[in-house]
Amino acid sequence: TPRQSTIRSLSLSPTLLAHTHEPTGATESNRATVRATPRGGRAGAMPLDGGGGGAAVMFLAYAALAVAALRAVLSYKSAAHAARRLWRWADEWAQAYQYYEVPRFVAGGNDGAENPLFRKAAAYVASLPSLEDADAACVLSSASKSNDFSLQLGPGHTAHDAFLGARLAWTNGGECLVLRVRRHDRTRVLRPYLQHVESVADEMELRRRELRFYANTGAVAPRWASAPFTHPATLDTVAMDPELKTRVRSDLESFVKGRAYYHRLGRVWRRSYLLYGPPGTGKSTFAAAMARFLGYDVYDIDLSRAGTDDLRALLLDTAPRSLILVEDLDRYLRGGDGETSAARAARVLGFMDGLSSCCGEERVMVFTMSGGKEGVDPAVLRPGRLDVHIHFTMCDFDGFKALASNYLGLKDHKLYPQVEEGFHAGARLSPAELGEIMLANRGSPSRALRTVISALQHVVAPRTSSAARPPRLTSRTSGHLDESNPAAEESQSPGAGGGGGFGKDAPMREFKKLYGLIKIRSRKEGGVVPVDDTASANGRGSDASTEKDR
User: Fold this and answer.
1) Which of 34, 82, 288, 352 could in theory staple to 231 by disulfide, Cβ–Cβ 3.0 to 4.6 A?
2) Where is this region: Disordered (predicted)?
């Protein structure tokens, strides 16, 4: 229009633009842009409302969102997961599979018996690492333990597993579990895999289940009263010779793994131990540690409350994977209540290796005695009835250090030399006595050690040949773990070494004996009162006899 051409030909200043009024009826394009020709310049377009800047911001925002979405889609983890799913789908489409259902109930209904394989397979599937990658899983918590969570496969979903190079999958079908195996792998993998599932499930059940302690009530029914077995003793905390502890641990592990070996030999899968020694030396605690190590229930049988028939019935009522404990066997064999020792020995022999003892496998039988083996019928102690003999003696200095480490957390102390002198002088304390002293003084290790030194000074150790030997819990091997006979060992010549696997300890015993006597004599010559007078303990009060012994 003529008006528009007039505006375009003007050279407008900012002041003039500020006072220029928009004509009535102007179009949207005229309102947006006014073409001005600066002095000496070309005509151009000048934005008046900033619309171009807003479009640029919007463009950058959309570009950022697109980059973020592309990065999320093309991330390594997402791409790898998508590739795995695509490969799995292609593999499933190309392969032929065989499906096996494991029903929950044998009869197919809720009234039927439960299928043991279903329970074990469910426990096994719940332990698979691939369950965390499943599309759906149920999260459960334990009623007895806090912060103990477990996963279970969700209904209709699948968890994958691998065994012997074959890929398998479990699917939760509600009242059944469906195992999927490739057809060309089923003959090679199926049976070994199911055995593997049962083995792993059994091990998990042993670790999780609560151990029980059973005691015979003497009544006809029920024969056993039970309670949770909460004894905290373990093989690691028992104060014992490290070498013997290692050998016992190895023997127990070999027994647990030796089912096929025992069956090949035609022997009952059973192991028996004899723990003997003075009271307070830790026999019952060691039996509890064995049960804790094996994960077995404990059946404590009181022989005085059961007759011959009751013993058989009690044995038949015990479960596999159990430790059967019979304490104070020597006291029972001495007779009483109108029974002779021969009658009681015959009853014990029938209990040990009668046919009723063969009705059940994977059992460990532990017998304890508070005295020596001299007054016991040799038929009871022979190999086959009692396979492993372990002698528990009073504590020596090595045993004291193990107890001090457990009770007081001590590895060394300035009072240890005085304690060692007391033990070398012949004084002996039981592990129970030392444990009570340390427990009562656990707040002050120095006070506990001074109390131990005082107790050693008041103990008169008998200087018999059996007591002169170091009371380390060692054993000798002659086909089985056994502790040598003290009387027979003393009757042998010093150079014979005891005639067994641990005869090399004889020179060390003589050296310790000589060392103790030298210590005593040196203190006497220096006017120091000894910790223990060896000569008076042996009933030999003269210096001449002491000099003769030295």
Assistant:
1) 288
2) 18-45, 461-506, 525-550
Last residue of a domain, one of 208, 239, 272: 208
343-377 burial by CB neighbour count: b if 16+ within 10 A, else e?
ebbebbeebbeeebbeebebbbbbbbbbbbbeebe
Q: What CA–CA distance (Å, rounded) separates 275 from 242? A: 17
CA 479 to chain centre: 29
Paired tokens of 536: 């008076």
Task: Provide the pLDDT confidence category of residue 338 given band limits of 50, 70 and 90.
Answer: low
Question: How far is residue 451's CA from residue 382's CA, in Å, rounded to a whole number?
Answer: 43
What dihedral angle (degrees, nearest 10) is formed by the CA atoms of 72, 77, 81, 83?
90
As a whole number of angstroms, the distance between CA 91 and CA 410 comes to: 62
| 198 & 285 share domain | no
Torsion sign, CA atoms 292, 293, 297, 301? negative
| H helix or E strand, kind and range, residue 365 | strand 363-369
Residues 6+ apart with CB under 8 A from 332: 303, 304, 344, 348
Q: Which amino acid is at 483?
A: E
SS3 179: strand
**Alpha carbons 435 and 451: distance in angstroms, whole number:** 12
pLDDT in tens, 414-429: 999 988 888 888 888 8
**Apex 113 CA angle, 107 and 118, nearest 5:** 90
Distance separating alpha carbons of residues 391 and 484, to the nearest angstrom: 9
Burial code of 118-131, b = ≥16 C-beta within 10 A, e = fewer? Answer: bebbbbbbbebeeb
Domain CATH number, residue 96? 3.30.310
Query: Do residues 16 and 4 lie in contact, with contact meaning Cβ atoms separated by under 8 Å?
Result: no
CB 403, CB 442: distance < 8 Å: no
Q: Which residues constitute the domain of residue 314?
A: 213-391
Mean pLDDT of the region 472-476 = 37
Give the number of domains in the chain.
Answer: 4
Give yes or no for a contact between 425 and 530, defined as CB atoms under 8 angstroms apart. Answer: yes
Cβ-based neighbours of 41, under 8 Å, separated by 6 or more: none
d(CA 434, CA 404): 9
Q: 486 with 355, same domain?
A: no
Statement: residue 110 has pLDDT above 80: no
Let me know: does 476 contact 502? Beta carbons within 8 Å: yes
The pTM of this model reads: 0.55
Q: Distance (Å, rounded) from C-alpha 29 to C-alpha 21?
A: 16
| Residue showing tokens 């000099």 | 547
Q: In terms of DSSP H, where are the helices of 295-340?
A: 308-316, 329-333
Q: Please, which residues have CB within 8 angstroms of residue 519's CB and are 6 or more apart in sequence?
A: 421, 424, 425, 530
Domain-located, residue 235: yes
